[in-house]
Structures are given as structure tokens and as C-alpha cells.
Amino acid sequence: MNIALIAHDKKKTDMVNFTLAYSAILKNHTLYATGTTGKKINEATGLSIERFESGPLGGDQQIGAKIATNEMDLVIFFRDPLTAQPHEPDISALMRLCDVYQIPLVTNLGGAEVMIRALDAGFFEWRNLQS
Ligand SMILES: O=C(CO)COP(=O)(O)O
């Protein structure tokens, strides 16, 4: 599965801890991330990650493009609900494309824990059937 990992600045520690905790599962998948998030995950876990631009510089849009071409199976996006983001339109566009293409999207740690366990249990086989 192709998995996108994205975290706003105040959620990057959560993302690093999440990827450390689930690295044994994540290493079996192809990982993508926005620039700074990917760098921090790679430094902390050693997981191999294809990094796009930083979110404010177009990284969210690059991940959106992957969704539009059916190249992304899951988006784990730890958003910061308490800080205004200069690239809010890009963030909305990414989430909108997840809805357009029925791509599973979780926006917080609680959802991510459920989703990663579902992935490990094989509950994503419907994605293989669809494509
Ligand atoms: O801003 C982001 C997502 O909207 C994340 O970008 P970075 O991973 O480059 O910090």
C-alpha cells in the first residue's frame, strides 16, 4: 500500500512517536511524506520515505496529485486544529480529493492507531480489488 504521512509542526512529535511505534508495520509499505515531516520520520525511525516539497511549498498538492491518479491508498495527516496555516486552501484541497476518490483519511493520532491496525489485519484488501 502507498501511505502518505503528513504532520503540522505542533503534531510532528506525535507523528514521530506514531511511526516509531508502528515502524514494523510501516516498513512493509511504500511511504510518502511532505518535506519536513518525512525528514523527521526518517531521522527518528530510519524508514525509507519518498519526500515531497514542504506542505506550504506545495507538498500537500503533490500528495493530492497522487490521489487523483490512484497512487495513494491511505492518508495519515496529523493536523493542528489550533493554528492557522498559510496554505489552508492546499490542505482543504487534499482532504477534498480524499473524499472525491474515497481514499481513507485520518487526521489525528486516535484515528491513525485504528487505521494502522486495520491495515495490518488486512482490511485494506478492498483497495486491491478496486484498482
Ligand atoms: O504543512 C504541512 C501539511 O499541510 C506539512 O509540511 P511539512 O511536513 O513540510 O512540515
UniProtKB/TrEMBL annotation:
Q: Which Gene Ontology CC terms are recorded?
A: cytosol
Which domain of life does this protein belong to?
Bacteria
Give one GO term, molecular function aspect.
methylglyoxal synthase activity
Can you tell me which residues bind substrate?
A: 8, 12, 34-37, 54-55, 87
Q: Which PROSITE patterns match?
A: METHYLGLYOXAL_SYNTH, MGS
One Pfam family it belongs to: MGS
Q: Do you know which SUPFAM superfamilies this protein is assigned to?
A: Methylglyoxal synthase-like (SSF52335)
Spell out the coiled coil positions from the record: none
Note the SMART domains from the entry.
Answer: MGS
Q: Which UniProt keywords apply?
A: Lyase
Kindly give the InterPro entries that the UniProt entry links to this protein.
Methylgl_synth (IPR004363), Methylglyoxal_synth_AS (IPR018148), MGS-like_dom (IPR011607), MGS-like_dom_sf (IPR036914)
Q: Which protein family is it in?
A: Belongs to the methylglyoxal synthase family.
Q: Known NCBIfam families for this protein?
A: MGSA (TIGR00160), PRK05234.1 (NF003559)
Q: What is this protein called?
A: Methylglyoxal synthase
